[in-house]
From TrEMBL:
Keyword Transmembrane assigned: no
Protein name: YfhL family 4Fe-4S dicluster ferredoxin
PANTHER family per the UniProt record, alphabetical: PHOTOSYSTEM I IRON-SULFUR CENTER, PHOTOSYSTEM I IRON-SULFUR CENTER-RELATED
Sequence intervals crossing the membrane: none
Length: 83
């Protein structure tokens, strides 16, 4: 699954630099996560780093993007493959 930042986000800027896939960006009002780039840190870390550092716990599973660990690993490999 990709992750989703809820509207409880306080724009503290701590999650964006922690994302190894550059999936987090500042949207029009709050930070957002690109589901095409989010692997929940599979391939990089044991747990999603954005969730680890979020002081208000506003990051949750995205209800529209259900992916297995294997699918997230495939996405990770595509994102990290040499160009």
């Amino acid at each position: 699954m990709a992750l989703l930042i809820t509207d409880e986000c306080i724009n503290c800027d701590v999650c964006e630099p922690e994302c190894p896939n550059d999936a987090i960006y500042l949207g029009t009002e709050i930070y957002e996560i690109d589901p095409a780039r989010c692997t929940e840190c599979v391939g990089h870390h044991d747990e999603p780093q954005c969730k680890v550092v979020c002081p208000v716990e506003c990051i949750e599973l995205h209800p529209e993007f259900h992916e297995t660990h294997e699918q997230l690993m495939v996405k990770y490999r595509k994102l990290t493959a040499p160009a």
